[in-house]
Amino acid sequence: MALYDVPAPAKLNLFLHVTGRRSDGYHELQTVFRFIDLCDTLDFDLRRDGEIRREGESLPGLLPEQDLVIRAARALQQATGTKLGAQVRYTKRIPSGAGLGGGSSDAATTLIALNRLWKTGLDREALLQLARPLGADVPVFVFGRAAFAEGTGDILTEVAVPERAYLIVQPEGAVPTARVFSSPDLTRDTEPVIISFFADWQTNQTQEKHQGSGGLLESELSGNLFFGRNDLQPVVLKQYEAIRQLAEALQKQGFHARMTGSGSCFFVEFNTQEQAFRAQQKISSIMLGGKSEMQASGQYDASAIHQSPRAVVKDSWVCSGLSDHPLRYW
User: Fold this and answer.
1) Are residues 11 and 126 in the same domain?
2) Is 150 in the same domain as 175?
3) Mind listing the pLDDT tens digit for each residue in 158-199?
4) Given Cys at both, which of 82, 269, 276, 290 links 165, Cβ 3.0 to 4.6 Å?
5) Which helix (H) or strand (E) segment is 157 a member of?
6) 57 closest CA partner among 15, 88, 92
7) Neighbour count for residue 219 (Cβ, 10 Å)
8) CA torsion 47→48→51→54, rounded to 10°?
9) What is the Cα–Cα distance from 109 to 85, expressed in whole angstroms?
10) Residue 264's beta-bridge partner residues?
């Protein structure tokens, strides 16, 4: 028995406010999570010896017992008493240290898929209980819907999100989440909002767009405006030069971009995929095409290109926003 090509989608934090710090060191947050169709995929083959074995990419030096996929599988084994195991292979498409929740998503997909493969029969609430100790972002992937999150990110309320396309831009370098949250520069006292404020703001934004011309205006290529802010973004920009260069380059080109999670990726929201693809082409021509063009013209200067925003984009993706996790009805 096996399950193949099981998706683990990335997430975006549409905003991320840090509203306090608890006595145990954890931070109180408010955010809206939504899924996008950039996905890792996982294969699960049944083992009858109880062993959990992994294949595929993982972070350099990451021991099996530190791997969230392995930890999720063992948590499900312990909770249900099953004697079954699994051979897990995964293909990574979501970059690590990018604020897109790849490791957390892989762990949630493991819980959901092995619950089916092993026929352990846990409901969603039981799986959420297993997800919470694994990491702050794991529960929302088990929750399975776009969500307004509070607490440490584990108090989840379903929220409606409109159809949107996103341009995701990745700079060089990854960001360790713990380093950002431990920074003395982090704002930890943002005034809490209530979910209706976000819902009303989103409704007003949608109505304004419907009342507009409906055409593909050049101004729309700058992306839609955002609710609130990401309190982690100023800390990351201060600590990481390459990421700051990317943010400045996007702003200089007129894009309304926001960092997701603790970084390093930025996203720009659009009404249509056509707009997002056009923006991707614009960014690629500006930021990726500089070195070869300068060399051909005889104007290439190594120190200048090092300082240029053309050198800071590692990768980019055009994605559709998802309201539901692909495994929501599993």
Assistant:
1) yes
2) no
3) 999 999 999 999 998 899 999 999 999 999 999 999 999 999
4) 276
5) strand 155-158
6) 92
7) 7
8) 0
9) 16
10) none
Query: Do residues 76 and 118 lie in contact, with contact meaning Cβ atoms separated by under 8 Å?
Result: yes
Q: Which two tokens stand for residue 11?
A: 């997430």
Instruction: Give the model confidence (pLDDT) of 220-279 as tens digits.
Output: 668 888 999 999 999 999 999 999 999 999 999 899 999 999 999 999 999 999 999 999
Dihedral through CA 108, CA 34, CA 135, CA 64, nearest 10? 50
Strand partners, 88: 44, 54
What is the arithmetic mean of pLDDT over 102-115? 98
What does the pLDDT read at residue 210? 59
Catalytic positions = 11, 137
Tell me: pLDDT of 131 over 50.
Answer: yes
- Flag whether 206 is in a domain: no
End residue of a domain, out of 160, 177, 212: 160
Buried b (16+ CB within 10 A) or exposed e, 124-157: eebbbebbeebbbbbbbbbbbbbbbbbbbbbebe
- Determine contact, residues 246/172, Cβ cutoff 8 Å: no
Domain that holds residue 90: 2-160
Number of domains in the chain: 2
Do 11 and 34 form a contact (C-beta atoms < 8 A)? yes
DSSP 77: H
Residue 51, in any domain of the structure: yes
pLDDT tens-digit map of 271-303: 999 999 999 999 887 775 444 343 344 443 433
DSSP 145: B
By three-state DSSP, how is residue 85 classified? strand
- Same domain, yes or no, for 33 and 76? yes
